[in-house]
Design goal:
This protein is mainly beta and about 500 residues long. Helices cover about 0% and strands about 55% of the residues.
Length: about 500
């Protein structure tokens, strides 16, 4: 830091000026112990530039002149050197409230560099070391301290780099770089408590069965995950607790649900009722319904006869075809094509029962029951999954595997049987070669999907995701994750997509 000292020899006092200049020091009476600077000789104005002064310091100085008679001093003056000015100092803190297209940036202006702040804020981009020439947001004040800014125009599923910044008269400074990624999900809608979901791959629709906990009203919501909007809603009866199956009839998808002793067939896109199937000897609420190969399979209990049934009906004219008695109590069923023997298989599991027996039923392609078998059942939830290409049926929160060629050999599970390993949901790839599972999220574990092969049912891959998950589907080489709060009467529902 430099200062220019100025003085004036008004008179030589009748004798030639031998020396003139300045004394300067950081203490008063600078002419006693201060520094001495010579600035030529003679009468008149003179100056001297002093360098390497300390910033923000009080200095004292006196002009002097000497002739043959002695030394004279001017009045002692004091001055303050300015603060040392630099670029600002900042910190960038964690990014919070990361959503699909928004986030909150946090930072701190630690020092203004001893110069007025012209602007501060955050800058970000998809490449490291973003600058104010990239995207930026200006903070609403230029004060020192912690500040934050909400950004709402980010891209979904994108990695970003963000830095705090501040500009003063010296230049622009940046805080540390923070890396984050926006979520790979979309807000779908807000609804009541979600009971269950069902996936319609052909029409790109997911169905949600919901209940309002305040008035017990239930309804089905149909959501198209390509156009990203609710396409239909329909109220249903209180005892409707499941979305059972979808099927194709006359090249149109249908949704099948049950009432007391009837199967309601709904248009899969509008949820309008198309037809109704009466099950005459069902004395209690129907248990389960499935549709396969133009046949409707219904399980139910007949209290007059004292046993359960699985009956088949022709979808074309809704006529009765065949039945089998003595299935497990209030059976939950799943139906698949047995391509080896060119027939249809059905597994019937207990529901609302302590029974540990399941039934394996065989039907011909017309729906006539051909044979049955029984096996031991370890219990579990109503989660049941298979498809025509899979060599197994998977059931329950433990993910118990039932090989189709040996259903009695069902000791293998995907989980270890502990509560922490209970599966929330799973889906099978269309070719039957993989199972994708999700489970409850505990503690600091990362959100993930486990991919199992279906040869030895070992984990082949952990797919890390950005959110919790309640339901998982697969469509066109993408995992579809549905995320919502359980047991909440006000639910924001989100959908995410991950390539596989």
């Amino acid at each position: 830091m430099t200062v220019k000292l100025s003085g004036n020899v008004i008179s030589n006092g009748g004798s030639e000026i031998l020396e003139r200049g300045f004394y300067w020091s950081t203490i008063p009476n600078s002419h006693i112990n201060g520094n001495k600077e010579i600035s030529n000789i003679g009468v008149g104005e003179f100056d001297y530039t002093v360098s390497n002064l300390t910033p923000n310091t009080v200095y004292y100085t006196k002009a002097f002149a000497e002739n043959a008679f002695g030394i004279s001093y001017g009045e002692e003056k004091s001055f303050n050197t300015a603060l040392n000015q630099t670029i600002p100092s900042l910190a960038t803190y964690n990014v919070e409230n990361i959503e699909t297209t928004s986030a909150i940036f946090n930072g701190e202006l630690i020092s203004n560099g001893n110069a007025e702040i012209i602007e501060k804020g955050f800058c970000w981009g998809i490449n490291p070391n973003p600058t104010i020439d990239d995207s930026k947001i200006i903070a609403d004040n230029n004060q020192l301290g912690i500040y934050n800014s909400a950004v709402n125009d980010l891209s979904r599923d994108t990695k970003y780099y963000v830095r705090s910044y501040a500009t003063n008269s010296i230049g622009t400074a940046y805080g540390e770089e923070i890396e984050f990624s926006t979520l790979n999900n979309y807000f779908m809608f807000n609804t009541n408590t979600i009971i269950t979901t069902l996936h319609n791959t052909q029409d790109k629709v997911i169905y949600f069965l919901t209940i309002n906990l305040e008035n017990s009203e239930k309804k089905i919501i149909a959501y198209n995950y390509v156009t990203m909007d609710v396409i239909a809603e329909s109220s249903v009866e209180y005892y409707q607790n499941s979305l059972h199956t979808i099927g194709t009839f006359n090249n149109q998808m249908e949704l099948y649900i049950i009432t007391t002793n009837k199967v309601k067939i709904l248009n899969a896109l509008t949820l309008e009722e198309v037809e109704e199937l009466n099950v005459p000897d069902a004395t209690n609420v129907l248990s389960s319904v499935q549709m396969k190969n133009n046949l409707i399979f219904v399980s139910y209990y007949n209290s007059n006869l004292g046993f359960n049934k699985v009956a088949t009906f022709n979808r074309s004219n809704l006529t009765y075809v065949s039945e089998f008695d003595n299935t497990p109590n209030s059976g939950a069923i799943i139906v698949y094509n047995n391509n080896v023997d060119n027939n249809i298989k059905s597994m019937v599991f207990p529901r609302l029962s302590n029974s540990q027996i399941f039934s394996e039923l065989t039907f011909n392609l017309s729906g006539t029951n051909l044979s049955h078998n029984y096996g031991n059942y370890e219990g579990g939830s109503d989660l049941i999954r298979t498809n025509d290409n899979a060599s197994f049926v998977i059931k329950g929160k433990e993910g118990r595997i039932y090989p189709k060629n040996d259903l009695m050999n069902n000791s293998q599970t995907l989980s270890d049987g502990s509560t922490l390993s209970d599966l929330t949901d799973y889906c099978i790839s269309p070719d039957g070669n993989n199972i994708y599972t999700i489970r409850e999220h505990y503690g600091g574990d990362p959100f993930s999907v486990k991919k199992y092969n279906t040869i030895d049912f070992n984990i082949d891959e952990m797919i890390f995701i950005n959110e919790s998950a309640n339901n998982i589907f697969i469509d066109n080489n993408q995992l579809i994750i549905i995320d919502y709060a359980k047991f909440s009467n006000e639910n924001d529902v989100y959908i995410s997509f991950y390539d596989i």
